Fold this protein.
Amino acid sequence: MDDYKLKVFCTVAELKSFSKASEVIHLTQPAVSAQIQVLEEFYNTKLFERTTSSVILTPPGEILYKYAKNILSLYADAEKTICKLTGLVKGCIKIGATSLAGHYMLTTLLSDFRKINPKLKISLHIGNSRRVIEMMNSATIDIGFVEGRAVGHKIAIEKIYTDELFLVVPASHPLARYDEITIEKALKESFIIREDASSNGRLIEDFFGKHDIKMQGLKIFMVSESLEAIKNAIRDGLGVAFLSKLAVKKEIQDGHFRALRIKKNKITQDISLAYSKKNTCSHLVEEFLAFALRYNYDELFAA
């Protein structure tokens, strides 16, 4: 069905920005503008008022937005009802995930789900938790996997696992012989930090803040948004980092890394599923959501 223009239109309306919409739906900004222009020409009216900092719906745009949301909802309901009747579960699930979930958790989860739904297709978008929530709010994705504190005014957030972060060091490091160390010992090390926008970065900042230690006082060698870059830096002896055991599970099992606790401290973060509060998702998304909510994540995170 030709509902794509309506999806683009709703995304621009909800994000109040052509540039943000182009990012989340992976179209160039001119392509987004072209989709809107087709609708404006069809209805022979302006749908948006453009300002220097934002775009807002015109009165006709407000009317179209209400109808567009209902139309898209009806499409989803029709698909869901027919799929339930025929027993056919196929299609594409659009998933947004943080780097931890996307790279180290979802492959196993999706592999297990595919065994019972072999016609499954996935569109996966990786970003920090804030970006995933933005994509959920604009209905660019069906389901999101986020870390740490996450809120969304149109979405539900349900915890699926409480993850623990450890101080990860190379197996050859002098600290590798310990299971836990004092915070004073840790402070002598060079740190590799996740970028500030990540939940991991905020969590570590909060952890040190509780001990009246400012991030500026740490010996920070590198800041990176890439988990793989951080792991390579640890492997090459450039520093240590606070990471989930899931991200370094293979390296720990292979004997390359060690994961240490800080004495009298436990650094934890929630990993949660984000999904629409409205019952407008497809039958396939409903099936995957139910599967993901009852999945046993303990074996994934065990190292």
Observations:
- Residues 182 and 263 are 5 Å apart (CA to CA).
